[in-house]
Structures are given as structure tokens and as C-alpha cells.
């Protein structure tokens, strides 16, 4: 029986399949006790919806941390996703420094950019703060855009393996311990994930669907965390998470009304079966 306790820190989009709305059920389904620390509450996610509500919970974080410390609560792993400000990053860094059990793992998804662009409201000050969080973590899960921002390498929409090798080398030189680099494809109809661990590189390639789906980065990171905390190696967890994310997309493609995320729930049984193999 898995008795590990995980804390995940990211926002709650009440409607729309991303952030804590996917992290909590996916990781829980993997058999991991999952505690949450919401960074904000939104009525919906911000892609495709208009007029959404937003409540920033930054100022609640120190009191929550203080209460946990008084109760002697600690975590086997902490996984962070979307964080709304540099102030939140500073608070989260404090939690990582003080609330992990001895030998506990910190896993950071930078969740700040894609397709060569920072997300709205983020700037280079935010990037600098995120660097401190990423390079103190045990495992980071950036996409190519985020990795470029973390290293200063110019972003390219088209690239070769030498470019990815340079990106990994720069991440390692900056202090990254283990890297799971997502969205790496060398042909138009493929994509995949590159793992850099102990100076060794592993690449897992899979089919790329032309339709983009919101929240797949969060689905991937959550499945990776669930698999990794079940004792899978980093490469095994990266592969399992990729297969699961592709399956979630496949279960969503024929439903044009389901534009706001992927049907990750319909594929959970397949993820659980993969973990038992």
C-alpha cells in the first residue's frame, strides 16, 4: 500500500479541466494521498471563457504554512504548477525548504509560457523568480518555451536534436538536477518528451494530433507525479504520463463541444492499469 503524502500547489479553475481540477483526481487515482494549497480560485480557466472571476489567495499562504508547521505536518513530495506572482513563488520556495520530509522530492512545473510567449501578466521578473524555484527542485517539467526562458536560449519553432541538447546542457549548467522536457518533436506529426537525468538523455516519441487541447500540460505533469511516486523511474513515469495524455486527447477528439479540456476521467482506469504493470 502506498502511504505517501503529496502536496500540490496551484490554482483552482472551478470549470475547465486544468490545474488542481485535474491534479487532485489524477494523483489521488494513482493511490497517493493528495493535499492541496490553492494559489487562486477562478470561476473558469482563462482560455476561451470571458468574464471569469478571480480571487488571489497569496496572502493566505503564510498562515496556512504556519498552521501546518504547528500541527507538525510534512510531505513526502511537493508538486507545484501555475503560480500567479513572484510573491507566491517566494512563499512556495519557503514551503519547499521547510515542509518536505527528509529525502522528500520537489517537482516543479514552471507553467509560465508556451509557443514562444509568456502567459499574460507574467514578465521577466517572474521568470527570474521561477529560476530560483526550478533550480532548487529535484525534478522540473518545462516545455521548450519555458526551458528557453530559464536558460536564455533563443526560442525556435523549428529545431533539431542539437538544439535540444544545447537546451538541456544550459539547464544542467544552471543547476537543474533532473529535467523532463515536454513537447519535443522533430517531425510535423510527432511530439514527445526528453528526460535528462544523471547526464543521460532519454527520448520518448509519440503521435501529435493537430487539435490543441487545453490543460494537457497539467494532465501530463499530474500523471508523471502519480507514476513517479508509485516507484516508477523518471523515464518510466515520463513514458506512462505521455501515453496517458495521448489517450485523454484521443477520447476527446470527436466531441467538438468539449473544447475546454480533455476527458481525462475516461482514461483513468488505463492509467491505473499501467501503474500495476
Describe this structure in words.
The strands form 2 sheets. The protein has a 9-stranded mixed β-sheet with strand order 3-2-1-4-5-8-9-10-11, with helices on both faces. Helix 1 (20-29) runs parallel beside helix 7 (216-228), helix 5 (144-151) crosses helix 6 (161-174) and helix 7 (216-228) packs antiparallel against helix 8 (234-250). The chain has one domain (5-276): Ribokinase (UDP-N-acetylmuramoyl-L-alanine:D-glutamate ligase, 3-Layer(aba) Sandwich). By secondary structure, the chain is α/β, with parallel strands linked by helices. The protein has 9 helices and 11 strands. The protein is globular. It starts with a strand and ends with a helix. The model has no long low-confidence stretch (mean pLDDT 95). Strand 9 (178-182) and strand 10 (190-197) form a beta hairpin.
Q: Mind telling me which CATH architecture this is? A: 3-Layer(aba) Sandwich
Using the coordinates shown, work out and report the CATH topology: UDP-N-acetylmuramoyl-L-alanine:D-glutamate ligase
Care to count the β-strands?
11
Mean pLDDT score, rounded? 95
Helical content stands at 25-40%
Between the first and last Cα atoms, what is the distance in angstroms?
15 Å
What can be said about the biggest beta sheet? 9 strands, mixed
The portion of residues forming beta strands comes to 15-25%
The largest beta-sheet arranges its strands as 3-2-1-4-5-8-9-10-11
CATH class: Alpha Beta
Question: What is the helix tally?
Answer: 9
Task: Provide the low-confidence segments as ranges.
Answer: none
- Integer tally of domains: 1
By helix and strand content, what is the structural category?
alpha/beta
CATH superfamily: Ribokinase
Shape: globular
Return the string of H and E elements.
EHEEHEHEEEHEHHEEEHHH
- Computed Rg: 18 Å
Amino acid at each position: 500500500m502506498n502511504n505517501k503524502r503529496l502536496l500540490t500547489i496551484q490554482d483552482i479553475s472551478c470549470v475547465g479541466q486544468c490545474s488542481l481540477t485535474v491534479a487532485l483526481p489524477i494523483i489521488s487515482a494513482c493511490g497517493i494521498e493528495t493535499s492541496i494549497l490553492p494559489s487562486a480560485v477562478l470561476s473558469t480557466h482563462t482560455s476561451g471563457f470571458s468574464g471569469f472571476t478571480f480571487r488571489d489567495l497569496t496572502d493566505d499562504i503564510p498562515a496556512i504554512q504556519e498552521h501546518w508547521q504547528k500541527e507538525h505536518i510534512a510531505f513526502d513530495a511537493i508538486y507545484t504548477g501555475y503560480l500567479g506572482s513572484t510573491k507566491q513563488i517566494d512563499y512556495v520556495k519557503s514551503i519547499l525548504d521547510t515542509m518536505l520530509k527528509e529525502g522528500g522530492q520537489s517537482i516543479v512545473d514552471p507553467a509560465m509560457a508556451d509557443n514562444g510567449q509568456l502567459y499574460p501578466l507574467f514578465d521577466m521578473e517572474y521568470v527570474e523568480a521561477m529560476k530560483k524555484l526550478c533550480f532548487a527542485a529535484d525534478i522540473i517539467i518545462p516545455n521548450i518555451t519555458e526551458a528557453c526562458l530559464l536558460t536564455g536560449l533563443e526560442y525556435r519553432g523549428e529545431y533539431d536534436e542539437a538544439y535540444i541538447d544545447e537546451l538541456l546542457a544550459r539547464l544542467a549548467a544552471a543547476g537543474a538536477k533532473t529535467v523532463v522536457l515536454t513537447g519535443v518533436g522533430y517531425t510535423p506529426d510527432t511530439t514527445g518528451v526528453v528526460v535528462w537525468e544523471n547526464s543521460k538523455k532519454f527520448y520518448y516519441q509519440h503521435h501529435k494530433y493537430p487539435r490543441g487541447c487545453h490543460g494537457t500540460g497539467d494532465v501530463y505533469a499530474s500523471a508523471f507525479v502519480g507514476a513517479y511516486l508509485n516507484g516508477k523511474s523518471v523515464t518510466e513515469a515520463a513514458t506512462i504520463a505521455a501515453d496517458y495524455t495521448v489517450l485523454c486527447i484521443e477520447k476527446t477528439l470527436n466531441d467538438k463541444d468539449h473544447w475546454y479540456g480533455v476527458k481525462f476521467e475516461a482514461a483513468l482506469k488505463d492509467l491505473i492499469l499501467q501503474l500495476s504493470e
